[in-house]
Amino acid sequence: MIIAQVPFRMSFFGGGTDFPTFYREHGGRVISTSIDKYCYVSVRHLPPFFEYKNNIVYSVRENTKTAEEIQHPAIREAMKFLDMRDLSLTYDADLPARSGLGSSSSFAVALLMSFYALKGKYVDKRRLAKEAIYLERVLCGESGGEQDQIAAAYGGLNKIEFRDSDFEVSPIIISSQRKQQLNDCLMMFFTGFSRFSFSIQAEHEKSIPANAQRLMEILSLTDQAEKILTDGDLDEFGRLLDHTWQLKRGLTSAVSTDTIDRFYDTAKAAGALGGKLLGAGGGGFLLLYVRPEKQLSVRKALSQLKEIPFRFESGGARILYYVSESYVPAKYEVNI
Predict the structure, then answer these.
(1) For the segment 16-55, what is each residue's pLDDT rounded down to a tens digit?
(2) Which of 123, 174, 132, 170 is nearest to 150 (CA)?
C-alpha cells in the first residue's frame, strides 16, 4: 500500500503569465508557496476476489472492470498513462476541491507519485511536475497555467520562471523569522463558493492576446514582490497584493463577483492592506494581508465567512507510507 501526501499551494504574484500562450513569447514568472493543507491518495492493488477490477473512491465511488470505464478524467488518464490495473484508490483532502488552492494539480501529482511508488519506482520532483502538467493539460485536455503542478511537487516559497517550454524553480531566500512574520500577516477566508476553474482558465486563455499589456504589468510585479520579501517593508507586500488583484480583476469578467468584491472592500475598510482571490477566480478562498493588530477587526467584519488558519510548508510531495506488494496481473495468476 502507498499513501502519498501533496500540499496545496497559495499563489501570490504572476498568475496568468504561466500560460504557454503567454510565456513562450514574453516569459512567465510567479511567486507562490505551499501550505500545510494537503491532499492524500492511498492506493494498493485490489485482491482478485471481486466482480470489479478497480475500486475508486473520491466524492463518489466507482467500481469498474477497466480503466477506460472510470469517469474521473485524471484517474482514468493517469492509469492509462502508467498502465495501472486492478487498483483500490482513495482520495481525501484537508480542504474542499475547486477552491483556488490548486487542488486538482496537487491531486494529479499525488496520483502519479503513488502509482510510481506502487511500481517500486522513485520519480524526482521535476519529472512529477512535468508529467502532472502533461496529464492535466494534454491527456485530460483542461485549460490552465502550469504553476500549480510545480508548486505542489516542489513545495516551499519559490519563484517559478517559465521560458520556451521549460521552467526553473528558485527558492526565495529569507530568514525563518521574516517568513514567520509574513505568515503572521496573512489571513485566509473561505467565500463559500466553489467552481470549476478550467472554464475560467479557458476564458482567460482566449483573452491573452487582448490582455498582453496587463499581463506584462502583472509579470513585472513579481520582481517588486521578490525585492520586498528579501529586503523591504513587508506591508508593501500587502499593498502590492491589492494592486495585482485590481489588475487581475480586469482580465475577464469571470475573475470576481459583486459578492466577492463586497467581502474584499469590507476587509479593507476593517484594516486589510490588500489581498486577492486565490486561483482562477469566481470563488474559493480570499487571501488578505492584515497587520496583527488589525486582525480582530477584519475577523469580525468577515464573521459570516469561515477563516482557515494555515502555515507555510516546505516539504512538497512525499510518500507518507510505503509497503511493497507482490502483484501478478490476473492473466498471469496460477492456482496453487
Answers:
(1) 999 999 999 999 999 999 999 999 999 999 988 899 999 9
(2) 132
Q: Is residue 118 classed as helix, strand or coil in its secondary structure?
A: helix
Phi–psi pair at 50, nearest 5 degrees: -120, 160
In the three-class reduction of DSSP (H, G, I as helix; E, B as strand; rest coil), residue 167 is classed as strand
Amino acid at residue number 115: F
CA distance 201 to 103: 15
What is the length of the chain?
336
Q: Which residue's C-alpha cell is 483500490?
A: 88
Cell of 26: 514574453
Report d(CA 255, CA 232) in Å as an integer: 30
> Using CA atoms, how far apart are residues 214 and 158, in angstroms rounded to an integer?
23
Distances (CA, A) of 302 to 267, 306, 310: 7, 8, 17
Q: Could you tell me which of 169, 287, 186 has the C-alpha nearest to residue 234?
A: 186
**Contact (CB, 8 A) for 75 and 104:** no
DSSP 268-290: HHTT--EEEE-TTSSSSEEEEE-
Which of 196, 189, 186 lies closest to 282 in space, CA to CA? 196
Write the pLDDT tens digit of every residue in 162-180: 998 899 999 999 999 999 9
